């Protein structure tokens, strides 16, 4: 079995979750991405969020939220994404950058616009009563 190791930032404001859409895509993903060789979770997540959304995560505020697995979006059957998620505060103004075309604040009703692994996270957030 082949799997993709990814990290995601879970940011909730006003009971909505921050999500992003890459240029030329129609699916939303939670901000984050793949780690570079030898990067820790923290190093990779801080780098990815700075590249994608121009903000700095506050390292001392990073809090493990969970690990989720699902079929990887856009990959052949059997390729799994393992998403390690963290909550964190940030400094700066959220703006799409690099490959990100749009950022959006989504509710549970928007779940179907997201990848399979993100949909699992939506379910978890709803069960915890964190989002509407």
TrEMBL record:
The keyword Hydrolase applies. The keyword Hydrolase applies. Residues 1-132 form the Nudix hydrolase domain. Gene3D superfamilies: Nucleoside Triphosphate Pyrophosphohydrolase. Keywords: Hydrolase. Its cofactor is Mg(2+). SUPFAM superfamilies: Nudix (SSF55811). GO terms for molecular function: hydrolase activity. This is NUDIX domain-containing protein. It comes from Emticicia agri.
């Amino acid at each position: 079995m082949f799997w993709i190791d990814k990290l995601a930032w879970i940011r909730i404001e006003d009971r909505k979750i921050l999500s992003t859409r890459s240029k030329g895509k129609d699916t939303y993903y939670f901000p984050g991405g793949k780690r570079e060789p030898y990067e820790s979770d923290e190093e990779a997540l801080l780098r990815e969020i700075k590249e994608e959304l121009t903000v700095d995560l506050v390292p001392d505020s990073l809090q493990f939220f969970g690990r989720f697995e699902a079929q990887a979006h856009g990959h052949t059957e059997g390729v799994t994404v393992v998403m390690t998620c963290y909550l964190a505060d940030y400094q700066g103004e959220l703006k799409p950058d690099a490959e990100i075309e749009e950022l959006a604040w989504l509710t549970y009703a928007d779940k179907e616009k997201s990848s399979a692994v993100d949909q699992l996270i939506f379910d978890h957030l709803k069960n915890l009563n964190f989002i509407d």
